[in-house]
Amino acid sequence: MRHAFTVDVEDWYQGIPISNTMSAQSEPRLEGSCHRLLDIMAEYDVRGTFFILGPVAQHYPNLIRRIAREGHELGCHGWSHDLVYEMTPEQFREETQRAAAAISNVTAQPVTAYRAAYFSITARSLWALDILAELGFQYDSSIFPLHNWRYGIPDFDLAPRIVKTASGSICEIPISVREVGKMRLPVTGGAYFRLYPYFVSRANMRAVSKQQRAVVFYLHPWELDPDHPRIAFYWKARLTHYANLKATEPRLRRLLTDFSFCPLREIAVQMRKDG
Ligand SMILES: [Zn+2]
């Protein structure tokens, strides 16, 4: 079974709760870490889906071109990296359109995949799926079907499904969780991949595969940059942001050896065939 490899392309300071002033003073390091990730993926001959933050497409067109040239899929990660459930539908529509346009201006390809900042499509912001369908997105991978302090829909389906909205249908490919009794545990990606020992991540992935579900794995380029600056911000977010960063690269290499991966679009295509 092939799993989905996804990357949320933002700099180390763009996905943490700090002020715009602090953000503007932070050292940009995205190019180095993202090229490093692309080098590793090329070494293992793996293609994935890269969800690009709008300003990243605007500032680093050559990086975006490399991602596209090497056969990866480009998706949209919004513009502001703010929580969707704290936006109005109008703000969400405007910034999503702006980000998708910035990405397709670079590649001349339409953008049909979306991932919300902080997985923030929740019960309070399910209207976002209507807007995504209206804007021509074919699939979304923003819903984490468990409870977390910042995100999650604890009773959402574990497997991908078509969601019908007033503006048409959209395929939702939720982030993977493992069922253990009545509990739903985050399987792999981001901080979870750094916090669990590798053998636990591997066992989690195998348990999900056994239920005939492809895992949606996710990573940020800055997770491959253990030396990025240490700054102060909200403790809950800080706790996971800096944890065990040195482990990412060796674990990623093991993961790419032990499992096979593909872009999210292949999971969506397979789903439409099955459904
Ligand atoms: Zn993000």
Short description:
With 275 residues, this protein is an alpha/beta fold. The protein is 40% helix and 16% strand.
Structure description:
- Helix 6 (about 125-135) links the parallel strand 4 and strand 5.
- It is globular and about 45 Å long.
- It is built from 11 helices and 11 strands.
- Helix 5 (about 90-105) packs parallel to helix 6.
- The mean pLDDT is about 95.
- With about 280 residues, it is an alpha/beta fold.
- It has a single domain (about 1-275), classed as Alpha-Beta Barrel (TIM Barrel), CATH 3.20.20.370.
- About 40% of the residues lie in helices and about 15% in strands.
- Strands 1, 2, 3, 10 and 11 form a 5-stranded parallel β-sheet that branches.
- The protein has helices spanning about 20-25, 30-45, 55-60, 60-70, 90-105, 125-135, 190-195, 200-210, 235-240, 250-260, 265-275; strands at about 1-10, 50, 75, 115, 140, 160-165, 170, 175-180, 185, 215-220, 260.
- The two termini are about 20 Å apart.
- The longest helix has 19 residues, at about 90-105.
- The site of zinc ion has 6 residues, from loops.
User: How far is the N terminus from the C terminus?
Assistant: 18 Å
- SSE order, one letter for each helix or strand: EHHEHHEHEHEEEEEHHEHHEH
The CATH fourth-level homologous superfamily: Glycoside hydrolase/deacetylase
Number of strands: 11
Strand content: 15-25%
CATH topology, which one? TIM Barrel
Task: State the helix count.
Answer: 11
Mean pLDDT figure = 95
Broad shape: globular
List the helices and strands and how they pair.
Layout: E1 2-9, H1 20-25, H2 30-43, E2 49-52, H3 54-59, H4 61-69, E3 73-76, H5 89-107, E4 113-114, H6 127-134, E5 139-140, E6 161-165, E7 168-172, E8 177-180, E9 183-186, H7 190-195, H8 198-210, E10 216-219, H9 235-241, H10 248-258, E11 260-262, H11 264-274
Helix pairs in contact: 5-6
The protein binds zinc ion.
